[in-house]
Design a protein that fits this description.
Elements (H helix, E strand, L loop, with lengths): L1 H14 L3 H24 L6 H25 L5 H25 L9 H5 L8 H21 L2 H6 L3 H18 L10 E3 L3 H7 L3 E4 L4 E4 L8 H12 L5 H14 L3 H22 L1 H9 L3 H16 L5 H14 L12 H12 L5
Parallel strand pairs: 1-3
Antiparallel strand pairs: 2-3
């Protein structure tokens, strides 16, 4: 078993250097079978099996730590114990690394959505950013006018939210066949309230194939977050690409709540980039926001401040390092890189395509 794990680790590292091979043979070959099987086996279960696995893992870790300190206090620790513990630790690490990559992680090294749409993603100018943000501002203001509280209240029932996201992918599939999403397996996270303190809105579990959504976040965020997590299920591992896929899907779905959620998030990413380059321009955009958008931005800020704590920055730092280790050198700022995809998209298809 040791030999097999070591050989697979070397092989995974080797093939990760060849995005074309990963795209053709893993992402479009092996992975769709793996993901569909996992979703077929677990998608019908209403609770997250992946979260239950995480709970079991936490229990095991707590048990091991308690055992360590018990032996420490009894002075029963010896060299044999530490050697065995080191061997077990290395074995578990290799097993998790190999299974993570075989089940999903190799998608971090694919060519991705830009390749599929033949987009030329490159550095953009402040003029490009101005144009993009102007369009997103117009879109978010428009849908702030059309979305109703009744439409928002619909998503208080998470089954309706998830079913709507599935329908959105069905609409997007008509234009982009590679976004076919069946069977479905998107569920509320069992750690939603904890997630507010740790700073996550959703996540994908590669070991169970389930997409989990933090269903306690403000309702106007939920449609975009849900479609983002489904994008991960379809093999778009990088956060910027999952964001861009969520854009394609929400835009294809004729639903004001989904489109408002989409443009609210995209405007947020764009305005952050504007402020990094031109504070005065950023303020001018902010002054033009619809009152409902301003209200929602305040609601989100209040929500974030309510759960702010000293542990969350540490968790986010660790998550950023995880992203860097998985071919996303910008770390947490990878999410904002969707702006470059959007600029490339409107340059190819026109501003109306946004």
């Amino acid at each position: 078993m040791w030999v097999l794990l070591i050989l697979l680790t070397i092989l995974i590292k080797f093939v990760s250097w060849y995005p074309g091979w990963v795209e053709a043979n893993y992402t479009r070959g092996v992975y769709p079978v793996i993901s569909k099987v996992l979703r077929f086996l677990l998608g019908w279960i209403p609770i997250s099996i992946g979260d239950i696995l995480y709970i079991a893992l936490i229990i095991i870790i707590v048990y091991k730590v308690c055992t360590f300190f018990r032996l420490l206090f009894k002075r029963k620790l010896n060299r044999k114990y530490f050697i065995l513990a080191l061997q077990q630790g290395i074995f578990i690490f290799l097993f998790l690394y190999v299974s993570f990559n075989l089940l999903w992680g190799l998608n971090y090294n694919r060519k991705g959505i830009a390749y599929q749409l033949n987009l030329e993603v490159k550095k953009y100018t402040i003029e490009d950013l101005d144009t993009l943000t102007s369009v997103l501002l117009e879109r978010v203001n428009h849908y702030a006018e059309t979305v109703t509280e009744q439409q928002r209240d619909t998503f208080n029932r998470k089954k309706k939210l998830f079913n709507a996201a599935i329908l959105a992918y069905g609409e997007a599939e008509k234009q982009y066949p590679f976004l076919q999403y069946q069977p479905a397996s998107v569920k509320p996270s069992l750690f939603s309230y904890l997630g507010n303190y740790l700073g996550f809105q959703g996540y994908y579990n590669p070991y169970s194939g389930e997409g989990q959504v933090n269903t306690t976040i403000p309702r106007f965020l939920e449609p975009y977050v849900t479609t983002h997590e489904i994008a991960h299920q379809l093999g778009y591992a990088k956060e910027n690409e999952a964001n861009f896929v969520a854009f394609l899907v929400c835009r294809a779905y004729d639903n004001s709540a989904f489109r408002y959620s989409l443009y609210y998030d995209l405007y947020h990413y764009a305005i952050v980039e504007v402020y990094r380059r031109d504070t005065a321009l950023g303020k001018s955009f902010q002054e033009k926001l619809h009152p409902q958008v301003k209200k929602d931005r305040k609601s989100y800020k209040d929500f974030y401040n309510r759960y702010k704590n000293p542990i969350e920055p540490i968790i986010m730092w660790g998550y950023g390092e995880f992203l860097k280790a998985n071919n996303q050198p910008a770390g947490k700022m990878t999410y904002n890189e969707v702006v470059a995809w959007l600029v490339a998209y409107f340059k190819k298809f026109g501003k109306a395509a946004l």
